[in-house]
Design a protein that fits this description.
Length: 511
Amino acid sequence: MAGVVDSNDGVVSEIINFLNASPTAFHAVDEAKRLLKKAGFEQISERQDWKLQVGKKYFFTRNYSSIVAFAIGKKFVAGNGFHIVGAHTDSPCLKLKPVSKVTKAGFLEVGVQTYGGGLWHTWFDRDLTVAGRLIIRESKNGAVSYSHRLVRIQEPIMRIPNLAVHLDRSTDGFKPNSQTHLVPILATSVKAELNKAAAGNVSAESDGKTSNDKKDTDDKKHHSLLLQLLASEVGCKLEDICDFELQLCDTQPSIVAGALKEFIFSGRLDNLCMSFCSLKALIDSTSSESSLEDEPGVRMVALFDHEEVGSNSAQGAGSPVMFDALSRVTDSLNSSTSKLLEKAIQKSFVVSADMAHALHPNYMVWHVLSCFKQFCIFCISSFLYVILFLQDKHEENHQPKMHGGLVIKHNANQRYATNAVTSFIFREIAEKHNLPIQDFVVRNDMPCGSTIGPILASGIGIRTVDIGAPQLSMHSIREMCAVDDVKHSYQHLKAFYEEFSQLDGKITVDI
């Protein structure tokens, strides 16, 4: 596959491979599952009883779009804490509508709905394809079953073309209408009909058992051309596709780039970058025979779906998935009848890892002040100065830089869950390992985003710090971050897993 890097090149090449293997949350979980199995983690199911052992490593998936993995220290007893890094697998994208068939002006188009808060203008004039999962009907020995199958069409099959500048001379800038403008073109009607006729002449309906009623129903909901492409990709009959969850994605691979090869250019860095770094940190912190020898806690990573839309789903951070995991691990290793989960929660700690806003060089105070001085020469009013000053997007003393390490996020109104204790713990680990660390607060005159941090902190009552690697172009179809910050993130999170128990034992708060 294009963009695959030799895994011997270290953490940076590994994240490139992870990004290129993960066009959707489903694929990200599938890749995480592959890496965990390779590292000796055992898959367990939420539908079955858990029989866990200290010193062992496990993982489970929910909806195949969220995944939780954990390693139980050999000195763990029920009531001890969990050391968790939480991130999310989803990113803003365009998802196919339940009825996606659109035909206009001789074109076959595909109806999509916006997911999350994307920079939708960046999706225009890109070479797009589709990926996601299919529900497939399978027949064997007269029995019918249904399977979940991941799918990804590698070739670019769609495009959302911009309108020529000659046809739009407005001076307000391009502001796409998400309903009417964000409709990708799949094919022209004439070519599609010719293709259908050619296919019909070549192959008769397979063995005469095709359900024409089912096919006709699907054709009314989705273009048969699209369904044919999907069926061909997974190797099934068109009529055996019962349903799907698909999204558009860019076909351009993730790469290490920049004149000095110091950046990563990729889609979905928010938040697959933090997902990968936390996953690799857990795997590598538990890789040796002695890794868990003196560990009294449980090292855990939780990668949730649906953060970009509020986390309110059965597999989001707002669901009981985290609480269920803590409860079942505690109960599985609890030989007494006492309830120890509450005690365990108070000893636990969550690192909410979500990408942060790096300082943008084109939206800085010094640039604005320079403009102001030039305008003063021409006696521009102070009103225009106020407008120009609003170009500054970062608070003066909190401007995260690329190569500057992980960013600790603070918000007095609890849009982030960081407090003095949790930030101290995370900062202390950085200082011990000589890792750079930065701070961020949003300007008072700007709204603040949020993360899974406050959701987990308030829903479970667990200590939490919000952090993330700095990046530019957040929520664009194509984002960028620094190679150094990927390394810093991995090293910092690995050190957190290895040293939190010892450090936490030295901190006294509620006495």
